[in-house]
Amino acid sequence: MPVTTQQLIQWKNQGRPIVALTAWDYAIAQLLDKAGVDLILVGDSLAMVALGYETTLPITLEEMLHHTKAVRRGVKQALVVCDLPFLTYQESIAQAIHSAGRVLKETGAQAVKLEGGYPEMVETVARLTQAGIPVLGHIGLTPQSVHQLGYRQQGKTESAAVRITQEAIALAEAGAFAIVLEHIPDDLAAQITQKIPIPTIGIGAGPHCDGQVLVTADLLGLSDWQPPFAKVYANLQQSITQAVVKFSEEVRDSHP
Ligand code: KIV
Ligand code: NA
């Protein structure tokens, strides 16, 4: 049975951890799905890891739709979630419904993710949910705000911790089916996880979240740079380089 948003909430209640990873094309998505990943996020981090941009800001909705269609074709089981890119949902509720609606209609992804827990974004999440569009929230370090926040840990002061906790509660009340908590202190993530009825999916937020997500290029050792909290599980840059060098040697050595 394919994973649903309701299933994720049940898993939180059962204490069964949620495994999430990012994908940007058919090949990677198929591997993740076959390996049993629960949630596959077409993160706008693909702007950096697959398209070579310095931040996530330049990617367009058209580009996200293109990648999400490819990912969707590789997935049979996992829940597929597509990031709404910068300035395709912040302008107005109508803009958010239009962008998120295109994701569901044109790609077959089952949900969207958007960044922020401030009151206007909470209202947007409520309206998307009412329109039948499942939303994954994302608070703490939000990379679309990199020019304001940098990539620094968030929620370190008491007032920031209170604000992030209130954002999580408000997003859950607005109907988000889960929330990504990025780069906040472990104890803050643990408290939020206890307080809200929907799953928290952490990245650099400690072990107490209901699930964990990583950028797959970081996990595989494919990216040029990864944040300090991203554990590297393989060195694909090295494997690929070795394979290419071996092929090059064979071509050159066997030339008559
Ligand atoms: O774009 C992305 O990969 C993300 C995850 C890090 C949560 O938003
Ligand atoms: Na993202």
Automatic annotation (TrEMBL):
Residues that hold 3-methyl-2-oxobutanoate according to the record: D44, S45, D83, K113
Family annotation (InterPro entries): Pantoate_hydroxy_MeTrfase, Pyrv/PenolPyrv_kinase-like_dom, Pyrv_kinase-like_dom_sf
CC cofactor note: Binds 1 Mg(2+) ion per subunit.
Keyword Metal-binding in annotation: yes
EC primary class: transferase
NCBIfam families recorded: panB (TIGR00222), PRK00311.1 (NF001452)
Job of this protein: Catalyzes the reversible reaction in which hydroxymethyl group from 5,10-methylenetetrahydrofolate is transferred onto alpha-ketoisovalerate to form ketopantoate.
Protein name (Swiss-Prot/TrEMBL): 3-methyl-2-oxobutanoate hydroxymethyltransferase
